[in-house]
Amino acid sequence: MDTRVPQLSSAPLIDPFARAISYLRVSVTDRCDFRCVYCMSENMTFLPKADLLTLEELDRLCSRFVAMGVQKLRITGGEPLVRKGILTFFRAMSRHLDSGALQELTLTTNGSQLRKHAAELAECGVRRINVSLDTLDDAKFADITRWGRLAQVLDGITAAKEAGLRVKINAVALKGFNEDEQFSLTDWCAREGHDLTWIEVMPMGDLGNENRLDQYWALSDLRARYAQRFTVTDLPERTGGPARYVRLEETGQKIGFITPLTHNFCESCNRVRLTCTGELYMCLGQEDMADLRAPLRSGPDDAALEQAIRNAIARKPKGHDFDYSRQSVSGQMSRHMSHTGG
Ligand code: SAM
Ligand code: SF4
After folding, report:
1. pTM of the entire structure?
2. What's the CA-to-centroid distance between 190 and ligand 2, angstroms?
3. Which domains does the chain have, with CATH numbers?
4. Which ligand is nearest to the CA of 130?
5. What percent of the chain has pLDDT over 70?
């Protein structure tokens, strides 16, 4: 793999609404060892391997973004840790941490492979990771992930802690599923020293058997329930994304709420998403995307690639179209989260 640090480009990536693009989320595979009901259907057809960017191509593309001012890289999927050789890619990206061009290299994972990879991730400069975990009940975990085993994930989280990684738990808030675990999950995170963020379920993909409106549990309701038990203080912290944070004063815990269905974060959006086939989505909630694989494969010179990235950023829309307010799912996206990488 290329070990050169790319030349810093003169112009940073600024979109038409004067937002600097400093955060790239990269899906490195559409495959996964789980089949979470809100994310995938049971019988998924995955992409042919030839469609996927190779690890070398991912390196070249991410390095180009870093050269153009991206400071935070989040690796996701599908399940990023099931991609063969993915630690080679993390190792390669760590050179941008060493050079100071990249400030954070991180990943979102279901945790199943952490026992195997946590120590090496830490060696590659990863400091914090997000682990998705919706329930602490064995049977419910098996139900929601279809193929997952809770014990394996909890062991993976332990391995991450042992390797010195900070863990943030992401839980999708699902009505009638984990409503009764709001406090037990919160208490467990407090005991284990993990931050916790709740995610509102999003209308992604046509999964057939699940009714998104039935599962929808408004995070304002979770917040109100916290307020009955704790003193809840809003924190000013903003990440340029849909997360808002509060502190539970009695425990000192920081709790996040990701409400992608609201529009109130778009004005500060600093991120774009790359799929494992090299499509760049400028907004999670819009269909528009730019193909970066063709310019990438057109030759070894990065000029065409850089121009394609700039053209794409020039099309970044002001905001997205999700809306549950009329009790019908409008703005529904046909692609799955595992495609754009959550
Ligand atoms: N496999 C990894 C994992 O589960 O963390 C990374 C990819 S997964 C697509 C990223 C995040 O998207 C997970 O936290 C998952 O819970 C979330 N997610 C998937 N489908 C979703 C949906 N329909 N609504 C809200 N969040 C969703
Ligand atoms: Fe896999 Fe993550 Fe989707 Fe679950 S949410 S099926 S773990 S990609």
Report:
1. 0.92
2. 24
3. 23-323+331-340 (3.20.20.70)
4. 1
5. 86
